[in-house]
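Below is how a single chain appears once it has passed through the pipeline. First comes the sequence as given, then the structure the pipeline wrote out for it. We keep one example in the README because the format questions we get most often are answered faster by looking than by reading.
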Amino acid sequence: MNLFSTVYNQFLKLVPRRAFQECVDHHNGDYRTRKMNCWAQFGLMTYAQVTGKISLRDIEVGFANKENHFYHLGLQSAAHSTLADANAKRDCHIYQEVFESVLPRCRDLAPQHKFRFKNPLKLFDATTISLCLEMFPWAKFRRAKGAIKVHTRLDHRGQLPDFVHVTTGNTHEIRVARTLEIEADDILVFDRAMIDYKWLNEIDEQEGYFVTRAKDNMSYRVLRNPEHVLPELTEQARAKGVLKDQVICIIGTKADDIPIELRLVTYQDPETGNIYAFLTNIFHLAALTIAQIYKARWEIEIFFKWIKQHLKIKTFLGTSENAVMTQIWIAMITYVLLAYLKYQTKCQYSLLHIQRLLRENIFIRTSLKALLNAALGDALRQQATLNPAQLVLRF
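Resulting structure:
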């Protein structure tokens, strides 16, 4: 007899129910709810994220055929009108707090980044999601276009978003960047479009570090070469693409905004031949490491591409601002839960493959960990029994 609950139920249990209810109670989210409380709303929206449901009616039909699998949500029906009303009226900050409560549990299991230094490495950027201005009039971007921006700081350790802020599309990234909390020894990597010398100076005053690309029109004066660089290391760095390593100071009208010494590393990519200039306040790491740190910024672009392709954050199940924010926060929770499942089980599969396994076995009664291990074992056995002769093309 199979005593396991469904894979779907086990996935939801990755969110501690007591912590979830504390977030709900903090915002009085279940006040005067009769048909669908916040836990049921969260369960249905998470189900939509994992299985790729494209509409509220799609969710309703999926529920109607499998009512016995949703008993733990306390639901008797999942009418699309009831779910639409919940998304529009339940405070989206409930799910923001749920995201913030599950994130530390996942971060504790995440692997360390692959650099030799121990500083936390954070990547900051934003992605734009286009919306129809007629349907989303609150999301003003341009005269005839609507959009929102998802500003994200990604922890390079485990590729986990530790800061998410959603604004309208016409909000510049630097306005959100100035609100970031910088902890001592953090290394923050961002694009040169967000360079604000006053903000860079504030990061330095908070004992944090930054790496970005220098603007082409930056006015500066070279003071000296970094004293810690030995001649033989310099030659080795040159062979790997480092052209210049200089200590500079900003001059001109912006000099008062950042009255500190900075480091300018000029690097040529061996593969493309492109030359880049990196601006930083890090003096204890090698010049080549500075270039590699900025190259790691590509991870946040991969993150944005992943969530847009595999989670439901480009098409929305409601048009109100609260409904959109609710869907984005539950999408982020789903991403963190997938990562938690990967790190907890030490599964070698990618997040996409884990999501596919969940989607195809969502209502199977089996151990979630056993499901991942069995799938991995089948793949390894298939690889081991593969006949090399089968790979030979015969004409």
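The chain is about 40% helix and 15% strand.

See the next section for the split statistics.
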